Amino acid sequence: MCGIAGIIKTQNSKYTISKELLKAMSDVIEHRGPDSDGQWISKTGNAGFAFRRLAIIDLSPRGNQPMTLSDGRYTIVFNGEIYNHLELRKELEKKGYVYKSNTDTETILYGYKEWDSNLLKKMLGMWAFAIWDEEKQELFASRDRIGIKPFYFLQNQGNFIFGSEIKSILKYDNYHPEINFDELPIYLTLGASSKDNTLFQSI
Question: What pLDDT, on a 0 to 100 scale, did the predictor assign at position 1?
Fold first, then answer.
């Protein structure tokens, strides 16, 4: 288990993404990944990622996140495991991609560069990830088909805030938590919230 979090600005947002905010979003989910943490802000300041790592596949620092391709275009935070990543790696290496780690994270990055969103059709596993495209100034995020790995998000004042847990989103200072009363009866009846909403308004 690892933990991801981040914030993306739209063209209308005047919000300043800070390393302090990202560190706070990461620290509050330390239990998801005690091995290392990382924060990253794009050159434009329009995107920021935070990560907590539980090292499993590649125990070296080469597997730390956020992970950015050498050309600087794509940066990822990823929680999960891609079961067929070695198969995909061989396919990508044949296309000329040179790996610097043994991680499935790097496979997702190269796979997205090669196949765009069609990568998802090739992946088998459980995941929640976000990829920032510095060239297009665009975010691509995905959660596995069943929803094993959580991906919570909030849209607020021109900002898109996400995290593996809601407590990361609550570190964003422009959001004032309110109860989602429409969701309350579902939770009290079923003991869980619905697939589209949480007990927090707008998350």
Answer: 72
Q: Rg of the Cα trace of the chain?
A: 17
DSSP 8-state assignment for residue 194: -
Active-site residue flag, 11: no
| Whether pLDDT at 151 is above 90 | yes
Alpha-carbon torsion, ordered 28, 32, 38, 39, to 10 deg = -50
Instruction: Indicate which residue of 2, 8, 22, 28 is catalytic.
Output: 2
Angstrom distances, CA of residue 30 to CA of 27, 34, 78? 5, 6, 15
How far, in Å, CA of 2 to CA of 89, rounded?
22
d(CA 191, CA 92): 44
For residue range 115-126, list pLDDT tens digits in order.
999 999 999 999
In 13-168, at which residue ranges do the beta strands (DSSP E only) sit?
36-41, 47-53, 67-68, 74-82, 125-133, 138-143, 152-156, 159-163
